[in-house]
Design goal:
Radius of gyration: 17 Å
Strand order of the largest sheet: 1-2-3-4-5-6-7-8
Number of domains: 1
Largest sheet: 8 strands, parallel, barrel
Distance between the termini: 18 Å
CATH architecture: Alpha-Beta Barrel
CATH superfamily: Aldolase class I
Strand content: 5-15%
Number of helices: 10
Length: 305
């Protein structure tokens, strides 16, 4: 099995769930996932934010605020709604994931960009729609103020694992409190939560990167990563606190601290100027965790390969 470092678009097209997980594990902490928002005006106007992130070195693309019932990715050429994910995979040559949010009643404000729509809820119907559209993985998590709890994530994981576990990679966790103050700081994710996610069927655990959320230190994150690995899960350390819009020096520091935890996947959020990390931070993060050689190879390789 190839490491994800050595995979090209044709490899990703032929990979199933287990092959992709093995490729990520084989890269030994050198996989970069970038979150983008397609419903906002792209940073480059007529080029999607996802394409821009891929061009700067992202291995995996994660779509936030993606509504499976009303799919919109601005910057795509004219595409039927049901084919937008396949078109994006064709243009970028990257695996694609989406966020779904396990909550019945959102705590978010009506009219805000984060206000929960029906097609973003983590229902079985929406998960099946995502799988049919060609999504490679689902991330069960919560946007700011939405009100997603860890217990809701566990319940949803059990259902998705039973119904869709062979079709999709299931990732789960929180990068911030998501409006649940009792699950803030060190309580965002506990050892008990990690075990519950594993028992419910998560393939990948998501947790805040050290230095992003108060109380999440390298030592604390390292403990959770080690536990997740012992339970058979891969991990994502996430920057979901707008620090993807910080200066390059800060990004490099966050990258190296996340690397020290032993994580498998490094995540950069979508809040640079809005809709994508600062592009220079994507490249800087990539160089910090895997050097110029692998960064430039990822940036340069054509999606036609």
């Amino acid at each position: 099995m190839k490491r994800i470092l050595d995979c090209r678009a044709s490899d990703f097209r032929s990979m199933g769930k287990n092959e992709l997980l093995a490729a990520i594990a084989g890269a030994e902490g050198r996989t970069l996932a970038c979150e983008t928002i397609g419903s906002l005006t792209p940073m480059l106007g007529d080029v999607t934010n996802a394409e821009f992130a891929a061009a700067m070195g992202a291995d995996i693309l994660l779509l936030n605020l993606f509504d499976v019932k009303h799919p919109v990715i601005h910057g795509l050429p004219p595409t039927e709604p049901e084919n937008v994910i396949r078109k994006l995979r064709e243009l970028t040559g990257r695996p694609i994931g989406i966020n779904l949010e396990p909550v019945e009643q959102s705590l978010g404000e009506e009219g805000s960009m984060w206000a929960l729509t029906d097609g973003r809820k983590a229902t079985l119907e929406n998960a099946r729609l995502a799988a049919d559209m060609g999504v490679n993985f689902l991330l069960l998590t919560g946007n700011p103020g939405i009100g997603v709890t860890n217990e809701a994530i566990v319940q949803t994981l059990r259902l998705f694992k039973q119904e869709l576990g062979d079709r999709l990679i299931l990732a789960a966790g929180k990068m911030h409190a998501s409006g649940i103050l009792s699950e803030g700081a060190e309580q965002i994710l506990t050892r008990r939560d990690v075990k519950s996610f594993a028992e419910a069927g998560a393939d990948i655990l998501l947790l805040p990167a050290p230095g992003t959320v108060p109380g999440i230190t390298v030592e604390y994150a390292r403990e959770l990563v080690s536990l997740a690995h012992s339970l058979g899960m891969l991990t994502i350390t996430a920057i979901g606190t707008s620090q993807e819009g910080a200066d390059v020096a800060t990004i490099r520091q966050l990258a190296l601290m996340a690397k020290m935890t032993g994580t498998d996947i490094h995540h950069l959020g979508d809040a640079g100027y809005g809709g994508i990390s600062l592009p220079e931070n994507i490249q800087a993060y990539s160089v910090a965790i895997r050097g110029i050689r692998h960064t430039y190879r990822r940036m340069a390789a054509s999606p036609n390969r």
